[in-house]
Design brief:
With 354 residues, this protein is an alpha+beta fold. The protein has one domain: Cytochrome p450 (Orthogonal Bundle). It is 51% helix and 12% strand. It has 14 helices and 9 strands. The structure holds protoporphyrin IX containing FE. Protoporphyrin IX containing FE binds next to helix 4, helix 9 and helix 13.
Amino acid sequence: MQSWVVFRYEDCKEVLRNNERYARDPGRLGRSKEHLATSIQTEDPPSQMVLRRRMLKALHQQDLKGIAIEAVEAFISRMSAPASGTRVDLMAECVAPSVAEMVANVLGSPTVPAETYTPISTALSRAMDAGLDPERLPPGRTAGDWVRAEVETWLSHAPEAGMLATLADDPVVGDELERKGSNYLRNTVGGIYNAGFSTSFALGAALIQLAETEPEAFARAAASPNLIQSANEIVRYLSPAQATARIALEDHTIQGRQIRRGQSVVTMLSAANRDPRIFSRPDDLDPDRQESNHLGFAWGPHVCLGAQLALNWVAALLASENRWTGLYAHLTPDYLDTATLMTVSTLKGDKRGK
Ligand code: HEM
């Protein structure tokens, strides 16, 4: 990939945090941005700050706990519905539709049917590994175009609920989009939909398997009086978003290695989250763990916008675990060939008898 790769927690955090030294936006190095759909995700402070802050505020004005609980209830009824003995793809039938509804509810957008959106999300997740395999880029671009066209239809009607309604009424956002153009909002909204869907899909698959493969640790996490802390520990432990990257803006060294301006630096979030310098017994899932500043949602100016929703969702899954764990036997994951996001394409199981 012609990149440096950093694994230590402190190094990863510094790369993510230090906006003066590392860029997400290639324009800061004078590189072309023509191929990029500019949004809060592709720009750095200060240029994305106004919209990012308004997005975050709009998100936090939603009933995140209520939306998460609703998504978990929908998930449980889908897990319970199939007849005993049926072999079910839990991703297609249970996880994907309920996370699609959750993200749509928070945004205030229509829910894209899971069978339509899952292949789009797969193409976008595979394209995040274009540094490893450039052939993944064209299908990713086609998927990105599809998302933008879809978002265009959402924005063409006055949104009535969720973040989109809050943003539509916000004069600061209106002024900002005058400057940035309406594509900026379209790309940002599409980015939120996909970031929310793809990571929750990945985390859902990992969580269902965790309940099966490490039932004792999972039960301890579910029994904790602080389920948000348990949820954070689960995100640290599973780290479905395994890596991200930045570009160096100046020559400098990391651990004695010379990094040149313009070189790419990959931060291995999943490795940093198991760094024994920071996390004692890093390979144990420990809901009582005191060190809570994991990098599973990254860090710094691009830290996950949806982290509070994701944590509420995992907490609701833990709170209701006795209603959905153990319903299926012979779980068989089929992993997607992706590195940036660790995720499955399918997770099949046999519905147990009563
Ligand atoms: C389910 C667990 C989730 C995990 C593990 C996760 C992880 C991450 C990570 C690691 C990043 C930083 C990427 C980077 O710096 O390159 C990120 C960014 C982001 N996430 Fe999440 N995420 C999750 C859920 C969500 C949800 C539910 C939403 C929205 C509803 C969301 C929206 C976003 C957005 C919009 C960004 C880009 C922020 C920016 O660039 O300013 N995420 N997420």
